[in-house]
Amino acid sequence: MRQKSLASLALITCIGMFVVLVAGVLVTRLDAGRGCGDDWPLCNGKFVPAYTLESMVEYSHRFITGIEGILVLVTFILVLRKYGGRSEHFLYVAGTAFFTVLQAILGAMAVKWEQSDAVMALHFGISLLAFTFALLTWLRIRRTDEVKDAGRAGKGFRRLVWFTTFYAYVVVYTGAYVKHTDSQGGCGTDWPLCNGQVIPGLSGAEGIAFGHRIASLLILVLVIWLFVKSRRELPASSGLRKQAWAALLFTVLQIIGGAFVVFSLSDVNLYVFAGLFHTSVIAALYGVLGYMSIRAWQLRDGR
After folding, report:
1. What is the Cα–Cα distance from 290 to 198, expressed in whole angstroms?
2. Where would a tag sit more exposed on the chain, N or C end, judged by fewer CB atoms within 10 A?
């Protein structure tokens, strides 16, 4: 298969993984996770579910995930045949396949057996990793050997990128935990204050919601530090420098999205839209950080 055609397939797979991620959030926001009862892969014992909002939303998510699973499998096989099992390309597509299967298993387990809030929050994080690896697969296939990057990523810069990427995942998890514990209203509709206080009570829904806000603030500090460090240590033509700027932009948008979610709590339709926007920005941010982590390692010697 030609590289250009394979890159197109990888892009379609990446977009499909993003749709799966968004569809999963839609299921959560509409409380449609039990829309098919405890049946899997059927929906309330039927191949075609009854026409209710919850069952259609849940079954649509399953259908999209199934189609995406086929795309991942085809991409996996073609990448293995073209580049071999020891290539960087295969590493990324294998990660995509692994996390796709893992998130599907967690989804099926959530249907068959009721899971804790902590496990359900992890489901979103696994889906985000599947999307990130799908993005890395596409970027690696489309990047030819002739493409060069400027600058050398020093040890301090690399460690900062990796820590920021890891910590961003922690922030994502705390955000998913807020939703699965129904703590999104823990601070009321106040933002940036929490129930009119700078430091509210730290127990129950209030503590969970406030903890996520503090975690989000710290990720902003880390990304600003990363942005400043990139401008000091890397030339203007460096791809890493441009990616640090994109990370800062998406971090600011992510915080705005979080505020949007808080302000929309009293409007169901607006709340769903705010959640989808917030999730889309998070996916973009983590995709950028994931790519920066790889490029920082590759440019450790200025290559």
Report:
1. 33
2. C
Alpha carbons 113 and 37: distance in angstroms, whole number: 11
Is the separation of the CB atoms in 48 and 24 below 8 Å?
A: no
The Cα–Cα gap between 235 and 150 comes to 7
From the list 54, 58, 68, 206, the catalytic residue is 58
Give residue 146's pLDDT band: very low, low, confident or very high (50, 70, 90). Answer: very low
- The 8 Å CB, 24+ separation contacts for 274-281 are 275/25, 275/26, 275/28, 275/29, 276/22, 276/25, 276/26, 276/29, 278/254, 279/21, 279/22, 279/25, 280/18, 280/22, 281/250, 281/253, 281/254, 281/257
- Name, in order, each residue with C-beta under 8 angstroms of 184's C-beta and a sequence gap of 6 or more: 178, 209, 261, 262, 265
The mean of the pLDDT values for the chain is: 84
For residue 35, name the pLDDT band (cuts at 50, 70, 90): low
Q: Omega before 192 cis (within 30°)? A: yes
Would residue 58 show up in a list of annotated catalytic residues for this protein?
A: yes
